[in-house]
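Work Package 4 report. The design task specified in the project plan requires that, given a folded chain encoded as structure tokens, an amino acid be chosen for each position. We show below one input record used in the internal validation round.
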């Protein structure tokens, strides 16, 4: 098991993926422990003074005007966790909660929050034990942090609420902690607030979405190339000199990927034969432009994620000179915007993939392929309804592309009068990414069948990379041309093949790594 060391300088996206999805073990470095102790001294000095300090000796949000006496401050910190753990709806995925906890630990270890080292160590212990707090779908407005989701995590540290054990069984958090020899934390001044006040949920989901989208975009370059090949299209539109004169980086990358997949094909370039066409349709010819624009969106979103991963988001924060200052860094706008932007890009990639699938199935536009790629059209319906399913997924993705970040509902008696809705943007992006895998899988299924039918009819050979994909997807249990059969299992197998990187594994064995 890989060990991820958390220090004061933040963590990487790879660290987040490792802990969230790979159960990487977490350790604190000595510098982080010193920074935690130093910041705690500042908080305790302020707590001893008569002057009120937000989060240390006052109430929260619209209740910040009340000065809290020393004998009530431990209760204050417990109460903020209990009252803010107000999520509703289904539990979110285990990997999301692990990313959420890990990223809050990252900020705590920056030494900017005033949390004691023993609290940070307990956070690491909970992650390492595989204990996952139950966090609900609804409760975060993406401002003042992902308050309700983080509160449910803090509740587990206190030994309260419900959590999921490493065996997947949900039970009382206190019992799970005891079973793993972990003592619940007794929160002190500032600590309850510090555990709740960050963009960690939306950031964790952004990092994981980027990880998924980077793979699915490369897979979509492959399926676009297969569709072009099956339609007897021309690969001349992929020539580097054409993309150099419109120098968007992602466009050039997608074009190069497609060109490499199609190298050695005998099927490309026949668009002027039996059914002459001067140019291929936009969904074929403009594939690099659309996928490339999405790649450039990913690059920008990655920049935002990297900045946030290096950030210490809390309010108030302990500065290097010992001052404790209120701020608005918890506002999720930077993350929310790119989450929405990615949903738009993903929807468009799904849309263009569906248009290519529809073209493969339409005998009036497929240039000689049988209707719906059926064995005996009329008796067989072929892939007619597979395209319906794909269209339904695309329609949902278009709805999910409506931005969440333009909405704001004031909260906390108008003290928090503008919020980011970043958590909501992240939740819908996860659904969109899930749908995009299925859409690409349907194009893969249609394009591989179409190429097999085309090579059988013409005697021409597909590209070696295309042949490798077809062989691999058939070996994965996705059947080829033939009479109608129960289609759903084939589509599920194609989806699983795309998700585990089967498309890329097959192609890259022939042409080397795709960009």
């Amino acid at each position: 098991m890989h060990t991820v060391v958390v220090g004061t300088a933040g963590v990487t996206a790879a660290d987040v993926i490792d802990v969230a999805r790979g159960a990487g073990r977490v350790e604190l470095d000595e510098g982080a422990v010193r920074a935690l102790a130093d910041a705690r001294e500042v908080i305790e000095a302020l707590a001893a003074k008569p002057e009120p300090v937000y989060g240390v000796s006052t109430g929260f949000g619209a209740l910040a005007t009340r000065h809290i006496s020393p004998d009530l401050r431990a209760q204050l910190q417990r109460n903020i966790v209990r009252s803010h753990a107000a999520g509703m709806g289904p539990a979110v995925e285990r990997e999301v909660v692990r990313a959420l906890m890990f990223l809050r630990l990252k900020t705590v270890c920056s030494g900017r929050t005033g949390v004691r080292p023993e609290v940070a160590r307990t956070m690491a212990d909970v992650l390492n034990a595989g204990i996952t707090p139950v966090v609900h779908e609804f409760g975060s407005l993406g401002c003042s942090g992902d308050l309700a989701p983080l509160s449910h995590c803090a509740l587990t540290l206190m030994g309260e609420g419900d959590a999921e054990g490493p065996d997947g069984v949900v039970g009382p958090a206190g019992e799970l902690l005891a079973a793993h020899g972990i003592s619940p934390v007794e929160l002190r001044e500032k600590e309850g607030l510090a555990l709740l006040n960050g963009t960690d949920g939306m950031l964790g989901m952004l990092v994981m979405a980027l990880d998924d989208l980077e793979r699915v975009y490369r897979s979509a370059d492959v399926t676009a190339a297969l569709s072009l090949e099956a339609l007897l299209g021309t690969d001349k539109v992929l020539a580097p000199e054409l993309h150099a004169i419109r120098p968007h980086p992602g466009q050039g990358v997608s074009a190069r990927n497609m060109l490499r997949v199609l190298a050695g094909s005998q099927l490309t370039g026949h668009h002027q034969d039996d059914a002459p066409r001067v140019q291929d349709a936009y969904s074929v010819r403009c594939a690099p432009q659309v996928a490339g624009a999405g790649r450039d969106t990913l690059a920008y979103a990655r920049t935002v994620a990297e900045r946030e991963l290096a950030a210490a988001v809390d309010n108030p924060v302990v500065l290097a000179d010992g001052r404790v200052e209120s701020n608005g860094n918890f506002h999720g706008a930077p993350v929310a915007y790119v989450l929405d932007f990615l949903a738009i890009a993903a929807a468009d990639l799904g849309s263009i993939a569906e248009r290519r699938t529809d073209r493969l199935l339409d005998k009036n536009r497929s240039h000689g392929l049988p209707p719906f790629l059926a064995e005996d059209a009329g008796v067989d319906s072929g892939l007619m309804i597979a395209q319906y399913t794909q269209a339904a997924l695309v329609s949902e993705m278009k709805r999910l592309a409506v931005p969440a970040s333009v909405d704001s509902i004031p909260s906390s008696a108008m003290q928090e009068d503008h919020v980011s809705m970043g958590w909501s943007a992240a939740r819908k992006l996860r659904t969109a990414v899930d749908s995009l895998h299925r859409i690409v899988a349907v194009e893969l299924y249609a394009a591989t069948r179409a190429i097999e039918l085309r090579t059988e009819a013409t005697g021409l050979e597909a590209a070696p990379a295309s042949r490798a994909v077809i062989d691999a997807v058939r070996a994965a249990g996705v059947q080829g041309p033939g009479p109608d059969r129960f289609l759903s299992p084939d589509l599920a197998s194609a989806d699983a093949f795309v998700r585990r990187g089967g498309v890329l594994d097959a192609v890259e064995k022939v042409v080397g790594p795709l960009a």
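Residues 422-458 form the longest helix (37 residues). Validation will be extended to a larger panel in the next phase.
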